[in-house]
Amino acid sequence: MIKYVNKLKQIVLSLALLLTGCASVAVNTYQDGKTIGKGTVRLGAGGEMSPMKNYGLFGVDKSVGGDPTQFDVLIDPADTDVDSTIYFWWLGNLLIQYGATDKIDIGIMPYTDIVFNYGSMAFVKYAFMPEDSKMQVAVVPFFGYGMMALEDTSGADGTTWDNDKFQYNTTYFGLDIPVSFESFYVTLKVYSDKLDGKFTYYDKPGEEFTPSLDRRMNFGAALGFDTPGEYGRIETTLMMQKTPQGDWAPRFYIGYNKFFTFGGD
Fold first, then answer.
1. Buried-most residue among 7, 27, 40, 153 (CB within 10 A)?
2. Sign of the alpha-carbon torsion through 257, 116, 51, 97
3. Residue pair 20/116 in contact by the 8 Å Cβ criterion
């Protein structure tokens, strides 16, 4: 009976993990090839489809003869239908961008699913072309951090590997190269991410398990455009990304942000 209760509890925790958005991070930067101008402030708000960095993973490897320093695979890597279904989540984001010079912008974009998942991405933007050029080109290096945490408040039931707290941390950095033509732009994207976990269990007091994945590289491109009437910017992104099981898979994202601009020299 205890075995089935524990199994049910793990299923409930797994569903809670899924429904709170998992370890999701912001992918879109909403940057075209030109800067906003010295002294200008841009404020934006929007939402986007985001990748779940820990899809298919839950807790540590608790199997007989398994390695508790490694992640447990909750979803069969061969089950591509399930994998594709649970990979995506929605995040809300804010954008704060400042024109430090005519050629350089700095910015930060905090994001959250308003439940247990939150993070932020910081970036610097350098534009190469003259202001009156029809084609604009920039480089946008960025660094981001995301965290998702959950605690089981039901109390210990005395079974083996009874989950207490778990946390997923994602760090990532990369480079966007946007090339814009008037109201639309194309961006080449590359970024590297790393997922780390932190787990404690009621029946193992004083022990903390910290499985992690190797750093992964991701490559892709984005297409962005400003809607007519200045109703906001839409950015679609196609990435080739490595799964936690080490396979390459195409991933498509879409995001939206509405800008408001103030000041400027």
1. 27
2. positive
3. yes
Nearest to 257 by CA among 25, 44, 35: 44
Instruction: Show Cβ contacts of residue 229 under 8 Å, excluding neighbours closer than 6 positions.
Output: none
Report the C-alpha gap between 77 and 84 in whole angstroms.
Answer: 11
215 Cβ contact partners less than 8 Å away, ≥ 6 residues apart: 192, 193, 194
Amino acid in the structure at residue 214: D
List, in order, residues 6 or more apart from 225 with CB less than 8 Å away.
183, 184, 185, 233, 234
60 contact partners, CB below 8 Å, separation of at least 6: 68, 69, 70, 71, 72, 197, 199, 209, 211
| Residues facing 93 on adjacent strands | 46, 111
For 9-42, write each residue's pLDDT tens digit: 444 445 444 444 477 888 899 999 999 999 999 9
More confident residue, 95 or 6: 95
Take residue 128 and report the two structure tokens written for it: 């190469």
Q: What is the largest CA-CA distance in the chain?
A: 74
Q: What is the DSSP string of 162-211?
A: -EEEEEEEEEEEEEEEEEEETTEEEEEEEEEEEEEEEEEETTSTT--B--
Residue 6: band (very low, low, confident or very high) from pLDDT cuts 50, 70, 90? very low
Residue matched to tokens 């029946």: 203
Count helices and strands in the chain by DSSP H and E runs = 2, 12
